[in-house]
Structures are given as structure tokens and as C-alpha cells.
Write a structure and sequence with these properties.
The protein contains 16 helices and 10 strands. With 384 residues, it is α/β, with parallel strands linked by helices. The relative contact order is 0.20. The structure holds ligand FNR. Keywords: Flavoprotein, FMN, Oxidoreductase.
Amino acid sequence: MTPITHIDDLRRLARKRVPRMFYDYADSGSWTESTYRANEADFQAIKFRQRVAINMEGRSTRTTMVGQEVAMPVALAPTGLTGMQHADGEILAARAARKFGVPFTLSTMSICSIEDVAEQAGAGFWFQLYVMRDRAFIERLIARAKAAGCTALVLTLDLQILGQRHKDIKNGLSTPPRPTLANLLDIATKPRWALGMLATRRRQFGNIVGHVSGVEDMGSLSEWTASQFDPTLDWDAVRWIRRLWDGKLILKGILDPEDARLALEVGADALIVSNHGGRQLDGAESSIRALPAIVDAVRDRIEVHLDGGVRSGQDLLRARALGARGCYIGRPFLYGLGALGEAGVTRCLEILHKELDVTMALCGQTRIDRVGRDILLPGSYPGS
Ligand code: FNR
């Protein structure tokens, strides 16, 4: 096998190994996918200042995110159905993240449950919450996350209603999945994936099935979830969750400075500048373009994180320079997982770390904590 040196190598390998309906689920955005594309492309437009003859020994990418030490300013983003990219995907990704020293965030819509991940990969991961109409279920879910030792709650605010994704509809990716004949034939050509799935009993949404009365299988689950994403979610609901959860609270899906100020007012510890990886409001601004105005609006009173389009260590450094304390990666780790399981997630993190370290050095920087806007070329980044 040719060496894997780049995130795109993992993407190509995942595409070969993961059944099309699940690969497409990860590698797509809503409607025209313009925001999905802009998330990546807008990073490329931001240029570094090349500096020379500066002692670059003793570099460190270590920092903190919501007070937690991290080996580099990265966390794994919450992604639904991760256990369909690879059998036991959430457990494998959580293990890889723990060994590398970065946080893993478990989605409400994961295949492996909170308890599975805590038992198999160890406590201390973060948990992502979707607000459902069934508030008693939310209270129980928060209590389960607490009992499992989750240290931060990531509350997603940009999915009260689902942005339409053409590929999922065409592939029959619904709950329960209704794959097309072409997709079933495609699964038959991915024996490594299929054998892995046969070897694990976990193929349902473990955080939900068996934890809501009457929801015992994929059929009853589909009826329940269809009615559960809560269109009435508002800042009062966020305040209610702030009262229920005494750990670190991170609000995900902020793209507007006005919403950033509201996030500050409800007492969150951090906010994530995010458009859900271009999967929700198609036509919204890319995350990296939205970042500077949000950083300026909250002025150090709350940690600002970012996700969307981060594909390299260079992107991590660009975001950090523009004020993001840390970035979450979604597709990059999913590609690693689909390509090579746990080893692929580790490879993804190694690639990002190496790129971050070398780019810092070539910009004349030795400490991630000292990086600021001055490492970027004026005129190449938003707000300059
Ligand atoms: C997501 N995302 C997401 N977000 C969330 O809060 N809960 C979830 O269950 C999911 N599910 C999900 C599935 C898949 C397949 C993807 C790709 C994304 C959004 C995710 O947390 C993050 O915002 C984006 O993935 C970041 O963009 P990149 O890194 O994928 O470009």
C-alpha cells in the first residue's frame, strides 16, 4: 500500500471500503453543498507570513480546551452513525483520541451507547446533546452522561429541523434505512466492512433504543425520532440545560455575532463556530470566514472553538491565529475510521499534528499558545 501522508489519502481509502450509502452520508452537505465546499475552500485563501532565521527548537502544540489539557488544539466532532463507518466506530475513535490526548465527542445519534463507550474506551469523553421534545428523556440522557464520567456537554443548536441532503434520500438512508438494490449490491462488494458488522451486536442507536418506553427496535425508533427534534428549542431551553448540567457546557452551531453574545449570557463555557459541516443551512457563511467577527464580539469572555472544513494542520493554525482556541474535526476522522479503523483515526491525528508542528516552525512560532493574527498575511483573511 502507498504511504498515507494526507487526509485525502484516508478519504480515498474510506471510499473504497465503506458502503456507498454510509460513505455518502459522511461526504456530503445539504442542497447545493455550497457551504460544504466553502468551509474547505475559504481556508485555502488565508496565507501565512513566511519567517526565517528564528530559533525553532522546543516547539509545543499543547494547550487546553475548556480547561482540559490537549496534545494539540483538536477534538473529534460528534457525528451520528459513526458505528456504520466501521463496526464499533465510536469505541475505536474514542480509544484513538484518548491515546493521542485529544477529546472525543459522542453524538446523541451514535450507534454505540454512552455506557458502551465508557466501558470499552474509558471515561472522560465529551457528550453531544440534541434537544428532543421528550424532556424527561433529555434529563435521563444528561444523568447517564454524568454517571459515565463525561466531562463536557456539547449542546447542538443548529438542528431543530433537518437540512435536506439529496444523497441520503437517494440512497434510502432514513430511519430505518431503506437501501436501494444498488446499495445492497454495493455492500456485497465490501466484505471487510460487512464481516466487521456481523461480528458486533451494536447496530442500533444505543443511546435511545431500550431507553424510551416503546422504542425497542429500528421500526419503533424511526417513529419516535421523526417526531422528536424540537422546533420549539429556544434560549430558555438552553438555560434549562445549563441548570441541569454542572460540568463544562459548549454551545455548537453559532455563526452570528448576535448569537455569540447570547451564548455568553446563558453562561456557556465555550461556543463552536459551526454550520454543521455544511449539512444544515446551505448558503450560510463558511465557519472560518464567520470566526473573526465572533471572536471580536465576545472578546475573551468565552472560549471560541470552530469546526467545518479543517483538513490539515495548516487549517488548525489558521483558525488558531484568528482566535479559535481549538477545532473539531468531523469528516477527517470518519475517513480514517472507514479506511483503517482505530489505526486510521490515529493516522489522521498524526498527520494533522505533523502538519501543525511543521507549519508553526516555518512561520517562526514555537508555542501554539502565542500564535496570533500577526502570523497571517494582511489582506488574505476576513476582517483584515
Ligand atoms: C455530523 N455533525 C453532527 N453534529 C452534531 O452535533 N451531532 C451529530 O450527530 C452530527 N452528526 C454528523 C454526522 C456526520 C456524518 C457529519 C459529517 C457531521 C456535524 C459535526 O459535528 C461537525 O459540525 C462537522 O462535521 C464539522 O465539519 P467537518 O470537519 O466534517 O468539515
